[in-house]
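Hi R.,

Quick one: here's the IS66 family transposase ISPpu19 sequence you asked about.
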Amino acid sequence: MPLPSSLPRVEITHEPESTSCTCGCELKRIGEDVSEKLDYTPGVFTVERHVRGKWVCAKCETLIQAPVPAQIIDKGIPTAGLLAQVLVAKYGDHVPLYRQERIFERAGLAIPRSTLGQWIGQCGVQLQPLVDALRQAILAHRVLHADETPVAMLSPGKGKTQRAYLWTYCPGAFENLKAVVYDFAESRAGEHARAFLGDWKGRLLCDDYTGYKALFAQGVTELGCMAHSRRKFFDLHATNKSEIAQVALEHIGQLYEIERQVQALEPTERLALRQERARRVADELHQWMTQQRARVSEGSAIAKALDYSLRRWAALMRYLDDPQVPIDNNWCENQIRPIALGRKNWLFSGSLRAGKRAAAIMSLVQSAKLNGHDPYAYLKDVLMRLPTHAASRIEELLPHRWRPSASN
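And here's the predicted structure, written out as tokens:
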């Protein structure tokens, strides 16, 4: 692959020590061979010297001076570029602050992790309006995914950690918005999902966790996840080679094969193919599951696997009648993977407030990635523009609408 043309080039020439031939004639240059090698210089820091000239009138002694440029952190030393690097390193590349502190030390800079933490907190506050606007953009869609994953949070005054949760919300996999919003909460109580969704009354794809049940009683339509149903049978088959589980997996595999074929189709075509082919497979699977459930022992592992699907069958099958609904919740679970990687490195959140700041930053980093942006370039540009950007036009800075400023 050729190296990107956007990268700066440093030309190094290699010529013979002598251009005289052994016969005594002068050699003539007839061409050249060019090869390119990729170099990298880690930890390159530069200092911006902001010089504000003072101008005075010799007659009336009026003094004028250009105002101090607006910054995310007033009177602080970090530029938007350094702040973006710290944020992306921690929440995009999962590098804890103590490791970043050591990286800066190798470059000759003493920046304590406490200072880095303060920078992150201040950026989180400034970026929160973008996340609020992103939440509103997500809630404008009628099909949403939701999931939650545990994270450790330091208990105030106890010196120990407790289990908190990072709730994840994103538009349906077939919606025209690529975005994700993480919501940090101190528990897994369903009230957190209800507070986030507010008056939203669309179709919610999630697992069978009871915390979502109150939403369905309030007008939200439940959508089941076929991947969770399949997982019950997969675990049984992997453990004891259950023949019943194998047959269930074969039927579910046929449904997924049809989904692979309709992924790129237009909604009307997707719906037609699902009705024509997937409906028949699903009806056969339901009839077979009902027959098997009558034959297996109550309380057995295979009975529990069958009950999981049969109890949620209506929710699992709603995707057949709506081309905007995916077959499973894997799209949302994929957005949780960066969190799983991150918590293995930064281990815990220092407080509820710190967790909420982290969730805001992670929402923008992951949404930038989903839209094909370099999260560093995105955050640097946003942090430069945000101090003077009109609140009424905050949507312009959202990842799915962002365009780099002319200076970039």
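Residues 225-328 form one domain.

Cheers,
M.
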